[in-house]
Amino acid sequence: MHQRPLTFFPLAPLPRRQTDTRTQQRLGFSGWRSAIELRGGQPRDGWFIARSVLSEGMNPLGLQPQRFLVACDRDEAAGVLRPVGFGQLRPLSKDALELASMYVLPQYRRRGIASTIIRALLDRETQRLASVPPEQGRRVVFCLTVGSERLYKRHGFVELDPFAAPGDADTVRVPQCLRFEILAGRVVAGILRPGEPLSLLCCRLG
């Protein structure tokens, strides 16, 4: 059976956000005040990332720690930062990224940690693109989710019909690699979370 190409329709750029000096100094880009600290992913995070991703039935490919932001809780007694969550922006094509591998330990959920990671990832990439000509750079960000649509919509994402018919000349196609991920993800979601559909969302960076 012939399938229509996956597409999405043009989106407005994300609004600029205020800079938090403490987080900017720590990470090199804008952030938000929180009891949880963010840092860049390191090789030693690889096992925690891989184990957590597999536990949630997420795509286990492309888990390069250096692409991740890791949320850590400071253990004052032990004097260490313990990773409690993470996320990454993964390249899909010459003009698109995927906000992927979002995870927070169950006991740390509903504290705004996922939102902090998402906003920091998008803000870092937006700042990086400020020095790139408008016609260049990966300015489109996709994400796949099961049951967390409201979280991503709060950050400027809109839900898409992955099998919508092509629109006008400005319509951008979903990268081929993401098409395969959607199909595989629907199978996994049907097993692990029956009755909850896999959703495709997208935003455009300014």
UniProtKB/TrEMBL annotation:
Pfam families, alphabetized: Acetyltransf_7
Record InterPro entries: Acyl_CoA_acyltransferase, GNAT_dom
Domain of life of the source: Eukaryota
Listed GO MF terms: acyltransferase activity, transferring groups other than amino-acyl groups
Gene3D superfamilies: 3.40.630.30
Domain N-acetyltransferase: start-end pairs: 19-177
Protein name, entry field: N-acetyltransferase domain-containing protein
Species for this entry: Cyanidium caldarium
